[in-house]
Each structure stands twice: as structure tokens, then as C-alpha cells.
Amino acid sequence: MDTCEYAKIFKALGDETRLKIFEMLRGGELCACKILENLNITQPTLSHHMKILCECGIVMARKDWKWTHYSLNCALLSGLIAHLGDTKCRRNTEE
Amino acid sequence: MDTCEYAKIFKALGDETRLKIFEMLRGGELCACKILENLNITQPTLSHHMKILCECGIVMARKDWKWTHYSLNCALLSGLIAHLGDTKCRRNTEE
DNA sequence: TTGTCGTATAGATATTTGTCAATATAATAG
DNA sequence: CTATTATATTGACAAATATCTATACGACAA
Lengths: 95, 95
Fold this sequence. Notes:
In chain A, strands 1-3-2 form a three-stranded antiparallel β-sheet. Chain A has five helices and three strands; from the N terminus they run ααβααββα.
């Protein structure tokens, strides 16, 4: 995973609507129609956002008959968290 | 910290140039001129990016004589990591 | 086949964004 | 005062983006 891919994830999460979707999915898998119910956007707009979330890898799609179910890619999320956590953070009081 | 503020942070990190800056700062505090040396952008463009990084709170500026030193806001970063880590991530194999 | 339902794509448009050159600002030195 | 140095701001512009309406696609039902 290089910097460019992380940038893609951050960019995906950097839109308020998509971050809301991300937060919804943190509770577990959801179908597109359920997500749509909780947002004030049209269906094509949701489809557009889901594509972006899937293309960066942080969200996965699963088709089940007519419905598409979305869930977080937990492995990728864990990797991202681990990467962020690997930061040299000194206590601000001293060098 | 509400969702909107996280979106601002993610948006800030969603640009490749700014993510590079973020990665540089993970190694510790740096002056603007040092950051500029490692990027192929002009000084005004760097200034613009630093403003965005500071406005979302993830980067802090410290003026010392003629130089401005930038460093990560470790408290905010920790909060972000904790938030992300608080995700209900099931093993993908079972319900 | 025709209709319905959930989702995706195409095309248009207004807004946002990243970048630059030019200029300003603030602090210091002489 | 003037000159220098590091950084910030302004204004312009091309590229990217979020959103919509209209339409297409795919799966199933009758």
C-alpha cells in the first residue's frame, strides 16, 4: 500500500456524504436502498458515491438478487489505522 | 468532534501533495522551507496547502523568528485513530 | 413479451479545487 | 530608510467534482 492509495481512501472519506455512508457501514452491512433512506440525495448520486468508496477499496459490494449490499473492508481499514498509528508522536511538553 | 470535522481532516489528507506533507511531518517537526525542498510545487502553493492542513487541525504551526515550523497535532491524530478503530469489524467468514 | 424493481451509466452544469505568477507582509540587518 | 528573507495573500484559470434528470441494464414475475 503506497501513499497514493491512502490518498485515494482519504479523498473518498473527505466528502461529507461519503463519510456519512462510511459511518453507517461501521455498524455493519447495508443495502443501497437502506443507505439512500438516510441521505437527502438521489439514487444516481448515491450510486456515484458508492462507486468511489468501492474503487478506493474501503467498501466492498455484494450482490444478492436485486439488492447490492455494502460493507467495510475491515482488513484495509485495519491497515490504515495501523499506518496512522505508526506516527512518531512526542509529548508536546518536551523534546 | 463531529463527522463534519473528520470530513475536513480526510479532505485535507485526500490530496496527494498534502498527504506527502503529512507523511513528512510524521517524522517530526519541519520548517516550511524544508518541506518545500521535497516537493515540486511553488512556495505559494505550499502555503496554500499548509493553510488547509492547519485549518482542519491536524497540523500545527509554530513561528520562530523568520521560520514557521509545522508539526502534527498528535492529540487530534490519536482521536481520529481511536474513532476509526471503534468500528464493528466482523471476521468476514461468518456472521 | 411486458412490467416492475433496484441499481448503474450518460450527459449537463454549477461549484470547488490545485496551481501558478505577482504582490504583500513581517521581521531583521545594515 | 532600504534591502533581504521566509511566508502569506491575491487573482486567474484549467481541471476535478457533486449533483441532477433521463435513460439503460439485469433479474425476476405474470
